[in-house]
Write a structure and sequence with these properties.
The chain is α/β, with parallel strands linked by helices. The protein has helices at 10-13, 39-50, 83-90, 92-101, 104-115, 133-148, 159-165, 185-198, 245-248, 266-272, 313-324, 368-383, 388-394, 404-425; strands spanning 27-35, 55-58, 74-75, 123-130, 154-157, 173-182, 202-204, 211-213, 219-222, 225-234, 252-261, 278-281, 288-291, 297-305, 333-343, 350-354, 358-362. The model has no long low-confidence stretch (mean pLDDT 90).
């Protein structure tokens, strides 16, 4: 079978050394078969192992191959649609539960890093940067909203204060969240995989699930083996393909593009981001950036609907970087890559159960780093019979994209064009 390596990226080039993992070539039995070794799958596996389950993880390529190993590396709280939007949609009781969970993913990440001594360049502090007065007004209400749910590590930044944290003159202000922050995302995934194995979990790489046989004891088939389990957790997200047809119609893979500069040196790096916080702006089609452990700038943005790989990523992203930091005009770009995330029409994650024993979580819509860690805990709780938090997510309303799979890409691209125009015009 073909060996799928990591796509070229700064993260793959600077990943911690790990042992090779075998492909499944046998028939095995387990309590829980997890499909996908990204954050959702690894988080689920860890919580289940800590609670005494036997766990087998199937990964089509390598641990963290998808969005978990290619994202911007930012720990951003809440969901892609904030708690007030959820409240209007589902009412106060369900919103209260979801609101209480909105800040848990970041805490889980820090607990994992500490408990399992994961080396992934963790830095505290994330900034939401406002380009317009309207965006600043939104941040002021967001602060009040988050504080209502007990989240207090927030500081509004006026124009003078935001200049102290980011050397970019496009911003009128911002909000600093000290419980936000950033990590080397692939090294976080690799560290979590090592933690899974330290607890007796087994991870098979290069072992795509090609078919799920549903029934009392469901079976996940791979090209050369199969796993019979009491439960299956489907955690393939944007890389699931058509394995579970019911999940494909309600979501759409989208690509985001990232570039990484050559090392900038301490002085230049510190002049850009003196406190080493990560930053994302408040546009609908947002830009995000941060420094790496070896003082490069990682800059991402743009969305490609339908997840085609654009021909020249640097040509798309470098102008955005230079608009923020014209002082980098002579700096070389060492890495450029794209990765897929899964978009839902509501921009909220899809969580549920198929029959009695197949569970899934998908569709983080660009807010995956923290949410996936929470999802793993919520799925593990449901398998242990504690379903209240699982049900709060499972009961969120979801809709197929208009026109089905054929029209979902042009439909979403049209929406993005509209919001991109609003960003440009400052609405």
């Amino acid at each position: 079978m073909a060996n799928t390596p990591y796509p070229e990226s700064y993260y793959a080039a600077s990943a911690n050394a790990v042992p090779p993992r075998p492909a499944l070539q046998d028939d095995v039995e387990t309590d829980v078969c997890v499909i996908g070794a990204g954050y959702t799958g690894l988080s689920s596996a860890l919580f289940l192992l800590e609670n005494g389950f036997r766990v087998t993880v199937l990964e089509a390529a390598k641990v963290g191959f998808g969005a978990s190993g290619r994202n911007g590396g930012q720990i951003v709280n809440s969901y892609s649609r904030d708690i007030d939007v959820i409240e209007r949609s589902v009412g106060p009781k369900q919103a209260q539960l979801l609101g209480q969970m909105a800040f848990e993913g970041g805490r889980i990440i820090r607990e994992r890093i500490s408990k399992y001594n994961i080396q992934c360049d963790l830095k505290d502090g994330g900034v939401f940067a406002a380009i317009t007065a309207k965006q600043m007004g939104h941040l002021e209400s967001q602060k009040r909203l988050w504080e209502r749910f007990g989240h207090t590590q927030l500081e509004l930044l006026d124009q003078r204060r935001i200049r102290e944290v980011v050397a970019c003159d496009q911003y009128v202000g911002g909000m600093l969240d000290m419980s936000g922050g950033h990590i080397h995302p692939l090294n976080l995934a690799l560290g979590e995989a090592a933690a899974v194995e330290s607890l007796g979990g087994i991870i098979y790489e290069q072992s795509p699930a090609v078919r799920i046989e549903r029934g009392t004891n469901p079976v996940a088939h791979t090209p050369q083996g199969k796993v019979r389990a009491k439960f299956i957790i489907v955690a393939g997200n944007a890389y699931l393909g058509n394995l579970v047809p019911e999940l494909a119609a309600k979501s759409m893979p989208c690509g985001t593009q990232v570039i990484t500069t050559e090392p900038l040196g301490d002085e230049l790096a510190k002049s850009l981001l003196p406190q080493d916080y990560c930053v994302e702006d408040c546009n609908y089609l947002l830009d995000y950036y941060r420094l790496t452990g070896d003082k490069r700038l990682i800059f991402g943005g743009g969305v490609v609907y339908g997840a085609r790989d654009p021909a020249n990523i640097e040509a798309i992203i470098r102008p955005k970087m230079l608009k923020a930091f014209p002082q980098l005009k002579d700096v070389k770009i060492d890495y450029a890559w794209t990765g897929n995330f899964l978009l839902t029409l509501s921009r909220l994650p899809q969580v549920g159960r198929l029959g009695d024993n197949i569970y899934y979580s998908q569709g983080c819509s660009g807010h995956g780093v923290t949410y996936t860690h929470l999802a793993g805990k919520v799925l593990a709780e449901a398998l242990r019979g504690q379903a209240e938090r699982f049900d709060a997510f499972a009961d969120l309303p979801h809709y197929p994209f208009p026109g089905g799979q054929l029209l979902r890409t042009p439909f979403a691209a049209l929406g993005a064009w509209y919001y991109g125009l609003r960003d440009k015009l400052g609405f």
